[in-house]
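INFO batch 0412 | record 1 of 1 | parsing
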Amino acid sequence: MSLLEVNGLSKRYGDHTAVSGLTFTVEKGQIYGFLGPNGAGKSTTMNMITGCLSATEGSAVIDGHDIFEDAVAAKKCIGYLPEIPPLYPDMTPFEYLNFVAKAKGIAKNKRAKQVELAISKTGLEQMQDRLIKHLSKGYKQRVGIAQALLGNPQLIILDEPTVGLDPKQIIEIRNLILSLKGQHTVILSSHILSEVQAVCDRILIISHGKMVACDTSENLETMFAGRLTIQLRAKCSADRFDTLIKTIDGVKMESYVMEENGVYGSGEISASGDMDADTLCEQVFNMFASVKIPLLSMQLSKASLEDIFLELTSEEHEQAIAQEEAAQKEKEKAKKGGKEEFDTLGVTLDAEDEEAEEDAE
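INFO prediction complete | emitting tokens
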């Protein structure tokens, strides 16, 4: 069941289009990764979804409430952490969260429980009475996430929540985000692709303000992998390796290089897309076992999220999309022109028929 429905969302500043016709849905209880190069329109999109920025066209509906038509009800469903957390450095986390709870309109009899729960979820118990300005970057981010959780919103939007953190802090924030799954729906914007791949159920990628992908990480890998590829290390010569691989239908040797010792070699084989990885590995293993040649390792190669991201946001891909859109517009224009010509012809024939009827009378 979808929690967020974005339809034809666009934002233009004069002649510059920051976001163009974004359409996607976000399902309840999942974590979505929101990717794109700098200037792609990620922050603009998130600011529109949260009602911080108006849209030129389109709509964003959160749990049935349009963010532009019914902003108060829609915003109650959202918790938002901007890239720079909106913190007051001279307050303690406890004071700040109480202030935010009041600003969000949380009932007085529920406020203390909400603040306590947010502090507990984000691990701020030991820091809640220190001034925010004396906290580390990691704990400031935790305070920012805690304010997003106040009011128990269904949708949590996090813009670069781990930027500037050390590896230990990144792992802690990543685990915190994972703990939100199921209880909340999360949209996570990040430049750390390994982080997105580790925590997200689905991935949205935009480039130049347009959606270029929306799928699971696994499906994107399959889509861009093309042929199955496996890295192998075996105890045999290149000729013998090639001969054995050729006996497996649909599989070929891409490369094989003997190591300096002249005994072992490392190579790569590929198979057609209709063969699954398990079948390929099983057939290769059985072939080498049948001739008693040691097969020391097999490793399946996949298109990484980084490869997919670079491909989808490349200038070549953008040009291909532009050409496809131009061709579609020409096709629609030609179709429309043909209809107008047909309509004109119809009017002409009708007029001629009327004249013929008048002459007959």
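INFO post-check: The chain has a mean pLDDT of 86.
INFO record closed
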